[in-house]
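User: tokens in, sequence out, please.
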């Protein structure tokens, strides 16, 4: 193909050339990856109407802003969940993730494992410069052992992560290894990755000349590229595994026979674990609710068909019961829970009025939501449909009241609960302190309790020393003796 001037090349329409020169250091490998990606996308007719690019914080992540595509420049390490979310709501779009090695395999490593496991239909281009470029050159997950970096000046003591092994732990995923020197190969790898229907990962070795290359002995980006040319060799076409310094594209086999550790790649033996036949049969159809299990009755148990109204009524019943129970002493509660005593008996002996539902065993306490027309007006004349529902908060408040502690906070809205003192104990005068330390602490607590009764702006003035506490209290009409 005759060489065309850059200005004449079609893929340029996929780039925001008006923003050039880019922010990347001269000689950085990221620009090459961007151009190769733009060429492939252009060739495949992928534009902003059908393609979204997701990148994460890092030098690599800036790529999204130079490409004429909708893109998300998301948090460092969060490219994959963001990309999966986009794909979930816009399945018709091609979602391409471009991220650094740190983003992909370090902070984002957990997401990577599970995107692979779920066979998320994404293409990931990992700019593997073997370093945290943006932050100045710290050791990353793919930094080779022994490499001297900003954060491992004596040489990286750790073994780099095995990206090939990780991606190929799923027999469905496509893994390709390439370098920025091997541009045609990189283009083929990106293209095949995009065409792959499931999870695909292109691991692109590239140079971060400024924050890695120079420190490890390369004088220029060109020297690094020459190193890639001399060191990396193409793997045989039918290779099932890439050796170190081999480039190639490992496409999943139709029979799923990847040697991925999930089973022997032997004829007739499945490599993806499936349910063994010896397991009990599952219930027919879909599970109805995540919270309802067939339980002891096994898979043939009748699936609960409670309506929403019934469920709401049961919830209200248990909340109302909890609110009443909360008024009982703990040991009595325990006896009721153990069924040694009925709730009605416990309430009666505690001198607490027994609600009708507790006395009669009626199913729904007042306030339970009832579908119109289903339940008659109760014997007490209460219309169950119009009562307020007791809420969890009401139950907690009732319990708190019994224990003489006021709840802080509540439903959204104004908080009418005093912040301090919270309990009768807090408000009680401290025992006369004989220890001077104790006395100082008691005085400080007393002042704090008083301060808390002031308006925030007055508190601030007292804290700044613009007003004495005594004056502030006087102005607010608070008697300091009310909290001694
Ligand atoms: C949650 C979070 N942790 C850490 C950082 C700091 N940080 C920004 S980029 C980066 C590493 C970048 O390395 P890599 O992902 O390999 O991208 P590169 O810059 O090499 O392209 C780190 C640690 C951050 N921005 N956010
Ligand atoms: S610091 Fe490294 S990765 Fe970042 S732009 Fe410069 S050369 Fe590229
Ligand atoms: Mg990096």
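Assistant: Sequence out:
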């Amino acid at each position: 193909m005759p060489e065309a001037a850059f200005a004449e090349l079609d893929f340029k329409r996929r780039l925001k050339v008006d923003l050039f020169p880019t922010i990347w250091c001269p000689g950085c490998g990221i620009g090459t990856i961007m151009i190769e990606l733009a060429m492939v996308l252009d060739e495949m007719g992928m534009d902003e109407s059908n393609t979204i690019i997701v990148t994460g914080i890092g030098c690599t992540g800036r790529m999204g802003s130079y490409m004429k595509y909708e893109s998300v420049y998301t948090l460092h390490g969060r490219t994959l969940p963001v990309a999966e979310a986009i794909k979930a709501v816009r399945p018709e779009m091609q979602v391409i993730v471009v991220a650094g090695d740190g983003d992909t395999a370090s902070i984002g490593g957990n997401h990577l494992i599970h995107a692979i496991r779920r066979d998320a239909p994404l293409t990931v281009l990992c700019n593997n410069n073997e370093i945290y470029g943006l932050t100045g050159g710290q050791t990353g997950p793919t930094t080779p052992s022994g490499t001297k970096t900003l954060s491992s000046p004596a040489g990286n003591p750790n073994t780099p992560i095995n990206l090939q092994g990780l991606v190929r732990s799923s027999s469905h995923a496509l893994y390709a290894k390439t370098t920025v020197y091997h541009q045609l190969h990189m283009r083929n790898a990106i293209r095949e990755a995009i065409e792959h229907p499931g999870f695909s990962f292109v691991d692109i070795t590239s140079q971060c000349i400024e924050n890695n290359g120079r420190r490890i002995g390369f004088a220029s980006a060109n020297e690094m590229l020459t190193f890639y040319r001399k060191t990396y060799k193409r793997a045989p076409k039918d290779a099932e595994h890439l050796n170190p310094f081999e480039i190639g594209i490992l496409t999943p086999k139709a029979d799923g026979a990847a040697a991925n550790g999930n089973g022997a790649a032997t004829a007739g033996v499945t490599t993806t674990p499936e349910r063994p036949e010896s397991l009990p049969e599952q219930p027919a159809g879909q599970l109805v609710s995540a919270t309802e299990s067939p339980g002891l009755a096994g898979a043939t148990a009748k699936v609960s068909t409670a309506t929403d109204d019934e469920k709401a009524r049961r919830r209200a019943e248990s909340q109302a019961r909890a609110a009443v129970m909360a008024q009982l002493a703990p040991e009595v509660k325990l006896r009721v829970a153990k069924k040694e005593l009925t709730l009605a008996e416990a309430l009666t002996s505690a001198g607490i009025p027994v609600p009708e539902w507790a006395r009669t065993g009626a199913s729904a306490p007042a306030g339970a939501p009832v579908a119109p027309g289903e339940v008659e007006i109760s014997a007490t004349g209460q219309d169950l449909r119009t009562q307020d529902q007791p809420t969890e908060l009401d139950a907690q408040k009732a319990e708190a009241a019994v224990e003489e502690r006021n709840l802080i906070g509540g439903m959204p809205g104004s908080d009418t609960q005093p912040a301090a003192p919270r309990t009768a104990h807090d408000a009680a005068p401290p025992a006369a302190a004989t220890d001077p330390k104790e006395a100082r602490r008691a005085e400080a607590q007393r002042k704090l309790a008083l301060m808390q009764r002031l308006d925030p702006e007055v508190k601030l003035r007292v804290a700044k020393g613009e007003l004495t506490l005594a004056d502030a209290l006087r102005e607010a009409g608070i008697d300091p003796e009310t909290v001694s």
